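Lab notebook, bench 4. The sequencing result for the construct came back, and we need a structural model before the next group meeting so we can plan mutations. Quick request posted to the team channel:

Model the 3D structure of this chain.
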Amino acid sequence: MSQMEFARALFLSSGYMAEIEIGKKKVNDRISQLISLTFGVSEAWLKDGTGSMFFTTPAEKLQRLTSLFNKLPPRFQDYVVTQIEQLLAAIEGE
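Done. Here's the predicted structure in token form:
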């Protein structure tokens, strides 16, 4: 992933991201949370290297899913719910 793609995924300018990379700007709590929710990376791991790098528990995965779901327009939220229901139905039918 390029710096520009990374910045775009976090809704940051590539210039701002470049300033973080060269140490001119600090990564604040808001950016840490954005990275965590967007890429499924544990905030504790980002901040001090403790614990697992990626979300591993169902609660952590649900937190990320909820954050992503809330960013979708309502019609796409409905689509996601329908797809999950169809997936469950397919699994139950196996």
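The chain has two domains: 1-55, 57-94.
Will bring this to the meeting.
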